[in-house]
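SEVERITY: medium
COMPONENT: batch folding queue
REPORTER: lab tech (J.R.)

DESCRIPTION
The queue accepted two submissions in a row. Attaching both inputs and their returned structure tokens so the on-call engineer can compare them side by side.

ATTACHMENT 1
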Amino acid sequence: MYNEDQITLLDTEEDLESPLDQIKPLEETEIVKPDPELMLTLLTNPQPQQRMLAARAFCDITDARATPQLIQLLQDNCPLIRVSAAYGIGRNPSPEAVEPLIDRLNLDFNGYVRKGAVWALGNCRDQRSLLPLTEALKTDIPAVRLWAASALAQMTEVGYEAIITAIPFLIEALVQDPIAAVRSNSAWTIGQLCKELPSNVVYATAVDALIQAFAEDQDLGVREDTKAALLGVGDPHGLQLIETLENEGWF
């Protein structure tokens, strides 16, 4: 999906965070909430720094009036503005933002922007987000795959068909992804989705995949996360197998 020049912008496990993740919160006594009215006007300011400041503000402010302008900023020339706009939309999701976010995910060369788009698409809780998120989970760089796995947990709010469509992609990532953190997030999301399923073939396949990862994954963190997912689901077969494996000294 992306060539080597594109993925080198963000393709190591150390780069799984976003530039916005590095912004340290102010001490409680120093917090001054931005003025939404001022920030709304700055979203269209000709100065890039002002637009970025405003877009970042709406990562914390909930105000639906900002969303149309944030959608426009997804096409800004500055990638820091685009990523800020994506996070702002994630805080202020809208059905109108889904297609523009999908375009960013499919077309943007910058991994941070795609990561923000994935998070925002999850928060939009829209059927249209499902296939782009599963495609990102299969083909994108590690940081984007990591968040795509988590974003797919929002399919619990979309409906049964979305859940059963997402699960095979998550199982594939749980079993095959080379990055442990992606496998862990996939396990967590499978657990969340299984809670919404009846006891059917899809549910049983998902639980079996969690059990397999718990028994076989070489990474301790992945095994712990799959165990937590199984405990959260509360499947009797899974719980019994965990107890058996631990009593037999497998771990």
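ATTACHMENT 2
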Amino acid sequence: MTTRSAEHATLVIERRLKAPVGRVFRAWSTPEAKRQWFSCHGEWVPLDYGLDFRPGGTERNHVADTDGLLHAFDAHYIDIVPDTRIIYAYEMTLGERRISASLATITFEAEPHGTKMVFTEQVVFLDGYADNGARLQGTEIGLDNLELFLEREANPIH
């Protein structure tokens, strides 16, 4: 029998990026760009990806871990203000089990040497799923990948 529960957490991650707001926003809003950095485990196998970046649009990122277990991210975009704000709701599943539902807000603010980006996620972990800090760690790794993507984009090797 499944124990039903809902455990809430809020994650807030602030980054100062050495790229203009428009370029940072495009890294979130363009499928070709986002697919390059939106991952927290480089060794996992991509299965399905799609991004329809508009209010009412969706995003799907399904991967298999090294044991073949499906990790599915399915999002619905609620609010988009270009170069300012992105708000989306998403659920995560492992195999057939929904483990969480979240509301994420990303804000962008121009600074003299780049962009201040704040990622806020309000998450509810479901039915006894023990996250043990994995969501925060995975999100940090994903945002590290965003920074590396922006650096590579600014300084391509010829």
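NOTES FROM REPORTER
Residues 8 and 124 are 4 Å apart (CA to CA).
No errors were logged for either attachment.
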